[in-house]
# Entry
Amino acid sequence: AVILNTKGNTMISYCSTCQCHYIWQQSFLLTFSLHGFRCFANEVEQASTHREYVRFPDGALRTFLQTPTYEILLTFTKTEWQDFALAVQEAEYMREVYGIINNDIKS
# Structure
C-alpha cells in the first residue's frame, strides 16, 4: 500500500493489488475504487466552499458530510474537517503523481 497523504486524524492510502483507495479516520474507514475516489474527492471539494456547524449535545461544534446512505452522516469538528478536506485534495493529486511515476495507479 502507498500512503498518499496524512493530515491530523486522516490517512489516505492506495493498494495497487486490489486497486482500492482507503480513507482512514479515527472512527471510520472508507473504501473506494478509482472512479469512486475521484467522485468523492470532487464532492468533498465542492462541500468545502460552505460549511455549517451545529452544536452537538457534548457542546462541540461539528459539521456533517452526507453519504450515499441517507441514514449515515459523517461528522467533523472544524479542525477535523479542514484536515480531512485537505488530505483528500492532496491525496487526489498524489495519486496522479504516483500513477505517472509508477504506472500502476490508473490516471
